[in-house]
Amino acid sequence: MQDAPKYQDVFAEVNQYFVDQIARCERAGISKDKLLLDPGFGFGKNLSHNYALLARLSEFHHFGLPLFVRYVAQVDDWSTA
């Protein structure tokens, strides 16, 4: 993970990354039915970035590809859980 990740607009940057990578795959002859999208929650993003992506997750459906989303929670204080 990155230290102090910075994004002007995390959704726009991840969305553009998907645009670029889908085009790259298509140029390489990989059909869209072999692809899925992973916004990378927790990887190079802070909690605020993750929440921003989660809030707009449905907007990635315009690609017509499955979304791969996983969440791993660590509870440090069970007394408040």
From TrEMBL:
User: Which key words are in the record?
Assistant: Transferase
Which positions carry the signal peptide feature in this UniProt record?
none
This entry's Gene Ontology molecular function terms read: dihydropteroate synthase activity
Which cellular components does GO assign to this protein?
cytosol
Domain Pterin-binding as annotated: residue spans: 1-81
Q: What is its EC number?
A: 2.5.1.15
Xref: Pfam families: Pterin_bind
**Record's superkingdom?**
Bacteria
Keyword Transferase set for record: yes
The biological processes this protein is annotated with in GO are: tetrahydrofolate biosynthetic process
The record ties this protein, via InterPro entries, to: DHP_synth-like (IPR045031), Dihydropteroate_synth-like_sf (IPR011005), Pterin-binding_dom (IPR000489)
Question: PANTHER family this protein is in?
Answer: FOLATE SYNTHESIS PROTEINS (PTHR20941), FOLIC ACID SYNTHESIS PROTEIN FOL1 (PTHR20941:SF1)
Quote the protein name from its UniProt record. Dihydropteroate synthase
Q: From which organism does this entry originate?
A: Kluyvera cryocrescens
